[in-house]
Amino acid sequence: PKPAPVVTVKAVPTFTWTTLPATTTLTSVKISVGIRSKSQITATHVYVNGQMYRGIKAVTNDGSDMRIEQTVPLVEGSNIIKVSATNADGTATSERTVVRQTTKPVTATQGKRIALVIGNSAYPAQRLANPQNDAADMAAKLKTLGFEVILLQNGTKRQMDDAINQLGQRAQGYDAAMFYYAGHGIQYKGANYLIPINANMHSASDVEYECTDLGRVLDKLDESGCKMKIIALDACRNNPFERSWYRGSADRGLSAVNAPVGTFISYATSPGSVAADGQNRNSPYTTALLQTLDTPGLSIETVFKRVAASVFTATNRQQTPWYSSSLFQGDFIFNNK
Hints:
This protein is an alpha/beta fold.
């Protein structure tokens, strides 16, 4: 029999990166890359966004055959950093991406803003005292902060869906778009739904057909291409239909949603919890938000941290607002006066 052929496995260099930040506000970043090779390394290169970087520094004898350490410049936005190494068996490459963020805030004088504000009070099964007031007062406040405002009170499902569509269309080319909702909200099968005043639900399975999916808001804002999307939900009140359902159930409050890129989502209380409607003109959450928006110069994160602290105190630690954020393009300032 013929001897088995000899298979030669090429051993190109391999790379080990010291952890790089995924995002930074700095204009440069230091890379440190270990390179191992079974044969002599004959060439190494560093590329930043396709351009070869000159003057790389090689440090040897640290447990790798070679270690490259170099500070490289970053441009605004996404930066692709690639390292290549060549030995007797060929050339190998490895790359990482670092996003340089801008720190310039979007303010009332710098960007176009629009908001859809909905307040549902007139539920036949259980009327809520405050959402109409909450929506009216929030709409008025946002107008003073430079927002164009679409206001809908006591909306049917058709009216709510149409208003959300309108927000998505009008937000195209805007710097910031906000959706504020006060009224009944519910979670079902892991999704969040906003309850219109004409919802006719006899069992939990009706939720998907009678209510407005919060995902619709997220999708329309994402389609708009708006730079910054803000959602505020004072919608974690109890489920008014549950006692009349003959089968099935939905979970209390709203479920957590991971904010898509460029989105900030605020909830009146923590996931799975129920928020108070309040005994005064406005709910505890909207009261705190209206008051905090009067303070100029606060970033959006600071605004909602202060809201959370105020609500936590006002409700005797019974209600804790919560938010999810994936804002990467600097700070958003509601009040720039």
